[in-house]
Amino acid sequence: KEIAFIFDLDGVIVDTAKYHFLAWRNLANSLGFEFTEEHNELLKGVSRVRSLEILLEIGKVELTAAQKQTFLVQKNTEYLGYVHKMTSEEILPGINDLLDYLDANNIKYALGSASKNAPLILEKVGLFNRFAAIVDGNDVSKAKPDPEVFLIGAEKLNMQPKNCIVVEDAIAGIEAANAANMLSIGIGDAKLLSEANYVLADTNGFTRDFLENIMK
Ligand code: BG6
Ligand code: MG
């Protein structure tokens, strides 16, 4: 049967969480509180605006709408500084082989990311032209765990949701995939991602055996 893949970007194709972390931590520090890697876990898969809200809850800081806007721009400006230095070296292990395998087998794939910076990041790592469709934070009105981003992806690929396989590292992303009635593959901690149909510890897990097995 014909199937397609829809990939999350941050944490699946590239490890940008470390750059988000640096930028959010600097912002938290400038507001006078600590921001740890553990806190950063809460922001994975979450939109930029919602991320700031969570960060402010952690620091118990209240800001006006105008201040929030200023800090969102400040955070993204710092983040873009890191993104601009990215190269294809930062594509996570196994991903290039996986995309080669999909191409060789005529399996279409799209990107389904919450990030408004997704097209730029794909450009920087040289993957922009490989995706049949790109759906990012600029295209959706409802963030993950809402299924919108993946449903638009399926539509752009001309595929039925039930024939799509989503690859995600965030709990909200797995929930979105499940809500879209797609097969979900979690990348990361099997306990955290227990709602996924399959969980791989990392992107090295996309062996030929695994792929042939899930596509049966
Ligand atoms: C998601 C990341 O992919 O994109 C989140 O996991 C991030 O951490 C979100 O906040 C939005 O990204 P951006 O690039 O639009 O700020
Ligand atoms: Mg992610």
Automatic annotation (TrEMBL):
Entry's EC annotation: 5.4.2.6
Required cofactor(s): Mg(2+)
Pfam annotation, one family: Hydrolase
Keywords from the named record: Carbohydrate metabolism, Isomerase, Magnesium, Metal-binding, Phosphoprotein
Listed InterPro entries: B-phosphoglucomutase_hydrolase, Beta-PGM, Beta-PGM-like, HAD-like_sf, HAD-SF_hydro_IA, HAD_sf, PGP-like_dom2
Catalytic activity: beta-D-glucose 1-phosphate = beta-D-glucose 6-phosphate
GO molecular function: beta-phosphoglucomutase activity
Similarity remark: Belongs to the HAD-like hydrolase superfamily. CbbY/CbbZ/Gph/YieH family.
NCBIfam families membership: bPGM, HAD-SF-IA-v3, PGMB-YQAB-SF
Protein name as it appears in the record: Beta-phosphoglucomutase
Species assigned in the record: Lutibacter holmesii
Gene name as annotated: pgmB
